[in-house]
Specification:
Length: 810
């Protein structure tokens, strides 16, 4: 990895955008005077949130530390009266406030005498019981702050604390707790994501949007940037087309990773380490370090997060005597600098350096794990995988009071290499050692988004924005074919270019017709200019024919929200998704394939409800959806090269996707939380337009699990008066999925994956700032394949793993 000259140009562009914003800010009015104040308080422990409230409101606030211990606040941003702002911070905490005779505010019962203005004063009082209700999460799914309960789409939001308790470390783990999310991760940087039946290995872009804070980091259809789920404020999974606000890559939905921001007031840190042993595998270690340093009090701070993984392998390669070949060493460092020169202005710069070196992918073949070691005809073929990237993001926001202006600039430089994966494949006539690959992918992505959004709770809430993205992805996938250990067909370098320059303008607005009825509309116009080039095998990229084309789309959205009673939201929506078209290679065009393929489109209907009942102790989400999926970009069969049919991409036909997903959380007693979630999906091809294709009407859409079910129980208790305890057990069932590939003639026409049963458990204790935990993952030792594969190269989960984790806050 190296710094390209183009990076300087991109950073200058970001600086110019920031300078333009600064000019606009100079003339901005000061924050509103009078009773209302402008608040900007992040989601965080309630004690810190109340301290920031006291400073920003100028209100004398008295609260006993025991009352807020272990509690968290939602994010608060906008113009409110102090009473309203404090009520929003305390919502869900089972705490109340009252005015004292001196004009200050007392939270619950406290004793204070003439406290200094704007400071949080601790009073001596006993700690309260655990909160009896379920913590609410404030999200920015519609690019403005809202309770998850109020967002008129199906959305699963998991807090940073919830992610840590569940042991979520990546998107594969996340899929066990999010209904309608399917992830098949077979190695570093190689994962196929599907939301509500929308996921594909074909086409030149992803059907699932991946966001880090305000920046879109989605890549191509079969690989995504491997984000590490450490030190996160929350993760939001938005289901259904999100084209209006999130663009072309979000046809099925969007996954948003929201990081913790630097705290400008307090020095803090955390060390978190674990060691584990995997059955039939090795011993691995993980270490996370977080350091938060205020450089200039309340104005400038930095937050550094480092993650080191020495991942143990479990797949053997007996032909050369190697064990646990799929081990890996991962180093991921994230540095975030936050500058707040003025109260309404935030400028955040983030840099991530990611290096992952693995011995092999998590792929086995020909049977269960006990009989499915890594086999090839050539024991000297390397199996190593490199997954490296650097990510830079500059985000600036200015709060004008009634609205906020935001600019987000992103640059990603990624390199991925799979040096060899020459595993034995099952073909129709027998076994073949095929594709001893040296696959390389080199990509650059630059994007710029500017948007203006309304603040606070108003009758009319809106968002307007513009977006630009310039991406360049070059792949080189040379392949070798072995039979009986002999090299039959040597692979040649075949560079391929996939480039895009796209722009979009978008808007979304909702209006409260009454206190109970809300209507919203939105739309996005998208313009994409694409280029593709395939080199002549063995020649440089410039030897190939350059193909060009432009694709455009308008994606509208309309939705209704109805609140018959407080904390019950019923909603309905109609939205559209879009994925850009692309080009086939000149080699298959010469055999009869079309030069390009058209965009595909999705029209989605959804009706659902969200509710918080029993004084916040019961949360229910239920949604039904129906999608009309047209011009699907799937596999076609144009002709033969010798005796081998050769595939290409075409718009093969239409499909329908219908289903239901749900989530229920219940606190029968204050210390126990029970959760049940799941989905049922019917994704089927209804009509074939192409004359030659790998699919038939009635075939299921590839890689879509028919159902999933998740159960979990979290219990908080006391080991002793000074030692807190927690226990968790979770079970997930994933249904079977199918891959279809008719007409090739070398592999089975269909393959079905296994149904997966996954169980995890943990037991922990906390001694003040120190925490220790015993954990078990994949306790049922599930060894079924996580995704279907007609070649019978199957990804598998890490076997039963037991470990211990320890953490220290300071």
């Amino acid at each position: 990895m190296y710094i390209r000259a183009s990076r300087i140009r991109y950073l200058l562009s970001a600086a110019a955008t920031l300078a333009a914003m600064s000019g606009a800010m100079t003339g901005a009015s000061a924050q509103a005077s009078g009773a209302q104040r402008n608040y900007s308080i992040a989601a965080q422990p309630l004690s810190r949130a109340l301290s920031q409230f006291a400073e920003q409101s100028g209100v004398d606030l008295v609260v006993a530390p025991g009352l807020v211990q272990g509690k968290h606040s939602a994010q608060l941003k906008g113009v409110y009266t102090p009473d309203r702002a404090l009520a929003m911070l305390l919502k869900g905490s089972r705490l109340t406030s009252r005015r004292s005779a001196s004009g200050g505010v007392v939270v619950e019962v406290a004793v204070a005498a003439n406290p200094p203005q704007g400071r949080l004063i601790a009073a001596s009082a006993a700690a309260s019981d655990e909160s009896a209700d379920i913590q609410e999460i404030v999200v920015t799914a519609q690019k403005r702050e809202q309770r998850a309960l109020d967002v008129p789409i199906s959305i699963t939001a998991l807090s940073g604390e919830g992610l840590a308790d569940a042991g979520v470390r990546n998107t594969q783990d996340l899929s066990y707790y999010v209904p309608s999310l399917t992830v098949a991760k077979v190695g570093p940087g190689f994962a196929t994501l599907a939301i509500r039946g929308l996921g594909s290995e074909f086409g030149n872009s992803s059907l699932t949007g991946i966001y880090l804070d305000e920046a879109a980091v989605s890549s191509d259809a079969i690989s995504q940037i491997d984000l590490v789920a450490t030190d996160l404020a929350r993760v939001e999974v938005l289901k259904g087309p999100q084209g209006t606000l999130y663009g072309e890559g979000s046809t099925g939905g969007t996954v948003r990773f929201i990081t913790n921001k630097p705290n400008l007031a307090e020095f803090s840190g955390r060390l978190d380490g674990s060691i584990y042993d995997s059955e039939d595998g090795g011993v691995g270690e993980e270490l996370t370090g977080v350091l938060n340093v205020p450089l200039v009090q309340d104005q400038l701070g930095v937050r550094m997060v480092g993650y080191l993984e020495n991942g143990a392998g479990w797949i053997d390669r007996p032909e050369n005597g190697r064990k646990n070949i799929n081990d890996n060493t991962l180093i991921d460092v994230r540095t975030t600098l936050l500058w707040k020169p003025l109260e309404p202005l935030d400028v955040q710069a983030m840099a991530i350096v990611h290096r992952n070196d693995a011995g092999a992918q998590n792929i086995v073949n020909l049977g269960p794990r006990s009989a499915s070691n890594f086999r090839t005809g050539d024991p000297t073929v390397s199996t190593e995988v490199d997954d490296d990237y650097e990510l830079y993001n500059l985000t600036a926001s200015y709060d004008f009071g009634a609205a906020s202006l935001l600019s987000s600039t992103l640059y990603v430089d990624a390199f991925r290499r799979q040096q060899g994966q020459a595993q034995t494949a099952q073909f129709t006539y027998g076994l073949l050692d095929v594709l001893a690959r040296d696959w390389k992918t080199d990509s650059e992505i630059f994007s710029q988004e500017i948007r203006l959004s309304s603040n606070g709770e108003r009758r009319l809430e809106w968002t307007l924005g513009a977006y630009y993205r310039d991406s360049r992805i070059v792949t080189d996938r040379g392949s070798d074919i072995y039979i009986g250990g002999a090299l039959i067909v040597p692979g040649l370098s075949e560079p391929k270019l996939n480039a895009s320059k796209s722009w979009a303008v978008f808007g979304d607005a909702s209006y409260k017709l009454t206190d109970k009825l809300n209507i919203g509309i939105g739309g996005r116009y998208f313009h994409d200019r694409r280029r593709a080039q395939d080199a002549i095998p063995g020649q440089p990229l410039s030897s190939g024919q350059l193909l060009k084309g432009t694709f455009t789309a308008f994606s509208p959205r309309i939705y209704l929200g109805y609140t018959p009673v407080e904390n019950v939201n019923i909603y309905a929506s109609r939205s559209e998704g879009f994925r850009s078209g692309g080009f086939n290679s000149p080699a298959v065009i010469a055999l009869g394939a079309p030069g390009d393929y058209d965009p595909e489109n999705l029209v989605a209907y959804e009706i659902g409800t969200k509710m918080s009942l029993l004084d916040g102790r019961l949360g229910i989400e239920l949604a039904g959806f129906y999608n009309r999926y047209t011009d699907i970009q799937f596999q076609g069969i144009p002709g033969q090269l010798g005796a081998v049919n050769v595939g290409y991409i075409s718009n093969v036909g239409k499909a329908s996707i219908k289903g239901v997903d749900w989530a229920l959380r219940w606190k029968p007693v204050p210390k126990l939380t029970l959760s049940v979630s799941g989905d049922v999906i019917d994704a089927e091809i209804k009509k074939i337009n192409a004359t030659q294709t790998a699919y038939l009407p009635g075939d299921p859409i590839d890689f879509v699990a028919k159902y999933s079910l998740s159960l979990s129980a979290d219990y908080r208790f006391q080991w002793t008066d000074a030692v807190d305890g927690k226990a968790r057990v979770a079970y997930n069932r994933k249904g079977r999925a199918v891959q279809t590939l008719r007409g090739i003639g070398l592999v089975d026409e269909q393959d079905r994956s296994s149904g997966l049963d996954i169980m995890e458990a943990s037991l922990g204790a906390q001694f003040g700032a120190f925490e220790v935990e015993l954990f078990g993952r994949n306790l049922l030792n599930e060894d079924g394949r996580i995704r279907p594969g007609v070649t019978r190269w199957w990804g598998q989960l890490r076997p039963r793993t037991l470990g211990i984790r320890a953490a220290l806050d300071f």
